[in-house]
Amino acid sequence: MDEIQSHLSNADPFQSWWPFIIAIGVGVVMTIKNFMGGQNSPSTNQINGQIVVITGGSGIGFEITKELCSRGAHVIVATKDIKKCQEKLEIIKRQIPSASVEVRHIDLKSFDCLKRFAKSVIKDFEKVDILINNAGIIFNPFDKTVDGFESHLQVNYLSHFLLSSLLLPLLKNATNGRIINVSAHANASGKVNIDDPLNIGQWAPAFHHRDAFAHSKLCVLLASIHLATVLKDTHVTVNTCTPGLVRGTDHLSKSPIMNAMCAKVITYPWMWLLMKSPTQGAQTAIYLATEPNLKTVSGQYFNDCEKAEINKDLCDGELAGVLFSRTLSALKMDSFHQ
Ligand SMILES: NC(=O)c1ccc[n+]([C@@H]2O[C@H](COP(=O)([O-])OP(=O)(O)OC[C@H]3O[C@@H](n4cnc5c(N)ncnc54)[C@H](OP(=O)(O)O)[C@@H]3O)[C@@H](O)[C@H]2O)c1
Ligand SMILES: *[C@@H]1O[C@H](CO)[C@@H](O)[C@H](O)[C@H]1NC(C)=O
Ligand SMILES: *[C@H]1O[C@H](CO)[C@@H](O)[C@H](O)[C@H]1NC(C)=O
Ligand SMILES: CC(=O)N[C@H]1CO[C@H](CO)[C@@H](O)[C@@H]1O
């Protein structure tokens, strides 16, 4: 230690290697950080007059909302905490005086509440151009909703399925309706069983919150890809994205694994280096919402504003279809087009 210190204090920037070593070190760290941050949405076009519905107005949802406001859209933010959300949106209004944004109540843990939300949108709007199914929960303890479903499954998957179906008439009324679902890398560790794709009643006593999250996000991906085929004769597209690993939202900080102080101290520097900021995490959804060239692209999975590989056997096979039809019956729907 003493040796290093004396080296440092004696270092003459023109005679010692230290400045170069430090500069290279900083360069390597920043290169890693930039690489892990992913790319910005390559499209910068305006979407004036378009109506956007997004679930969840904090974290990544807040960043998506802000950007789409700056592109001229009218954004309806569906949130379970109106007051908190309104306070956040004040920030947007201060930064973007022309922002057109409103808040409406939704609780994705209750189908009744969700239906009330959809009704209010249908009453007030004739079209919806973009629906972004962004809200989600992660690593929550086992819990059943009032509707009797495991909470990750209902919040992340079933509710967004239902919302997409209820708003479909408005999406069809837009010239190029777009449904954007937010999944996660974690879909890769999810398992969907063809005999019981929704895992109903399978959790207790073997419940693990990580499996529940991964399962719900794999359902999102599979159902989205199947839905694209169901909607192929309409102007409505449906694509799925993953934000990547994002720090600084409630997603990880509120999850039980991050509660321990030592976990924070150990992980924060790594999170800063290896994970995306919420703004970076929002880029792929923004790209899917605004890119003109994606008008007819449907049923794809995107990461870092680029098409990502999916497991074709899983997504195009029987499983996705079975999941889709079981989801319809779990939601007591005859078909996706009501
Ligand atoms: N952060 C990551 O590393 C990461 C990685 C992969 C995927 N994702 C996905 O990206 C999306 C956004 O995540 P985030 O990082 O921004 O997390 P976040 O900060 O926790 O935001 C989640 C949002 O979901 C909303 N929400 C949760 N439960 C709800 C309910 N019952 N009813 C209505 N809204 C509810 C919250 O609304 P309130 O504001 O009203 O509480 C919040 O706006 C999620 O789908 C998540 O799974 C995130
Ligand atoms: C679709 O738009 C037309 C007018 O452009 C309107 O009359 C109709 O009610 C809209 N449909 C829905 C489901 O709102
Ligand atoms: C996303 O895509 C379609 C749109 O309706 C739906 O079937 C699917 O379940 C949705 N994803 C979610 C969030 O589950
Ligand atoms: C089933 C499936 O296609 N899973 C995908 C989940 O996400 C990862 C990475 O984001 C993909 O590589 C998998 O193919």
Automatic annotation (TrEMBL):
InterPro entries: NAD(P)-bd_dom_sf, SDR_fam. The chain crosses the membrane at residues 17-36. Gene3D superfamilies: NAD(P)-binding Rossmann-like Domain (3.40.50.720). Keywords: Membrane, Oxidoreductase, Transmembrane, Transmembrane helix. GO terms for molecular function: oxidoreductase activity. PANTHER family: PHOSPHATIDYLINOSITOL-GLYCAN BIOSYNTHESIS CLASS F PROTEIN, PHOSPHATIDYLINOSITOL-GLYCAN BIOSYNTHESIS CLASS F PROTEIN-RELATED. This is Retinol dehydrogenase 13.
